[in-house]
User: What shape does this take?
Amino acid sequence: GQNIDQPTEMTATEGAIVQINCTYQTSGFNGLFWYQQHAGEAPTFLSYNVLDGLEEKGRFSSFLSRSKGYSYLLLKELQMKDSASYLCAVRDQGGATNKLIFGTGTLLAVQP
Amino acid sequence: ETGVTQSPTHLIKTRGQQVTLRCSSQSGHNTVSWYQQALGQGPQFIFQYYREEENGRGNFPPRFSGLQFPNYSSELNVNALELDDSALYLCASSWGGLGTNEQFFGPGTRLTVL
Assistant: This one.
């Protein structure tokens, strides 16, 4: 089956660092994506990992371990505008070229 | 470069009716995917179109159908609407070649079925 797990909610303080974890069990794997989604808006792309290791992009970093079926998104120097839902998505290898399987999202609240 | 656009923004229908949602893909993209996002959930894959052909389908009944046009824009049609079809419908476009194939999402259509 296809299963992607991430915490439902997290709270962090402005200026701090937060790590959002994602574990997955999918029949195929062709990359893992992280998206940010503000309430009532479309998801926007944050990062992509297909090989093991860390990808850094400004204040955001994403890590992947394919053997463990595990990824995390690290947000540094948190800002109030980072309050949003963070979606972990796995690209399914079989069938559609670009089918994404999403987790339910982690709602991050950044407090002053 | 024009981003992904969707219309309408909001729509209210009653049970049993039919609805058509529209999506214009980002310039240069030939692949369109449709997702349904219920409140508090992640998006669920409905289907994907690549060069006007359906190229993969999720676990949705046949009353969900679609089209892609030569300019790569797309429609999602839903027949015999049910209350559970109330959701945000997202369209995402991408380039169906090698590489990251990052999907760019449109703003969505909020469908309410009464």
About this structure: Chain B has a mean pLDDT of 91. The CA atoms of residues 31 and 96 of chain B lie 6 Å apart. Chain B touches chain A at residues 4, 31, 33, 35, 40-45, 47-48, 50, 55-58, 90, 92, 94, 96, 100-108 (CB under 8 Å).
